[in-house]
Design a protein that fits this description.
R3H_dom_sf, KhpB, RNA-binding, 206 residues, three-stranded mixed beta sheet, 26% strand
């Protein structure tokens, strides 16, 4: 862990000085008082400032972002990483060129990287963190693709009166289709099979 020595006329001044140098709030550090201030003789001779040691506590999200940068560098990718704090999650957006290798087929590599990123983040956090990892807005584009697919397949089920079994999808992708067709007239959806080959079935309502 990073440690920093700071001094000031009072303990509070020394801590403020150290926090300013680290660029963090007080909840991100452990403070150890090394030396109390003293006024010295007549308030002049031998006066000593307060000295403190600030130990920077790890931040799960920052550790996760550094992990992503390390992985990208190992893959010879130049990326920018943006952090967006949401109500129930932290979204990390990765942008750059040639990120197809980072996304993988239908986002499989991105999903695996998201899983590892969550492990790294929670290893360095005292509270549960949920990291949503995206690259070049892939997840939004994938959501739009899945919603369009679900509507086409639902229309086909109504037209042919035969159920359709979709390709295997992740739980998150299946959730998108279930939600999209929840209020769709005349069809119902359910999942069948075991992970990682669990599929959605679109069928006529009885």
């Amino acid at each position: 862990m990073k440690k920093l020595l700071a001094s000031g006329k009072t303990i509070e001044d020394a801590v403020r000085s150290g926090l300013a140098q680290l660029g963090v709030n007080e909840d991100r550090v452990n403070v150890k008082v090394l030396e109390q201030p003293s006024k010295g003789l007549f308030g002049l001779i031998g006066a000593k400032e307060a000295k403190v040691e600030l130990e920077l506590l790890p931040d799960g999200v920052e550790e996760a972002i550094q992990f992503l940068r390390d992985v990208s560098e190992a893959m010879n990718l130049t990326v920018s990483v943006e952090r967006v704090d949401e109500n129930d999650a932290v979204r990390i957006n990765v942008t750059g060129s040639d990120l197809g290798i980072l996304i993988g087929r239908r986002g499989q590599t991105l999903d695996s990287l998201q899983y590892l990123t969550n492990i790294v983040a929670n290893r360095h956090s005292d509270r549960h963190l949920r990291i949503v990892l995206d690259a070049e807005q892939f997840r939004e584009r994938r959501r739009q693709t899945l919603e369009a697919l679900s509507e086409r397949m639902a229309s086909k089920v109504v037209r042919t009166r035969k159920e359709i079994v979709l390709e295997p999808m992740t739980a998150q992708e299946r959730k998108i289709i279930h939600a999209r067709l929840q209020s769709y007239p005349n069809v119902k959806t359910y999942s069948q099979g075991d992970e990682p080959n669990r599929r959605i079935v679109i069928a006529l309502k009885q």
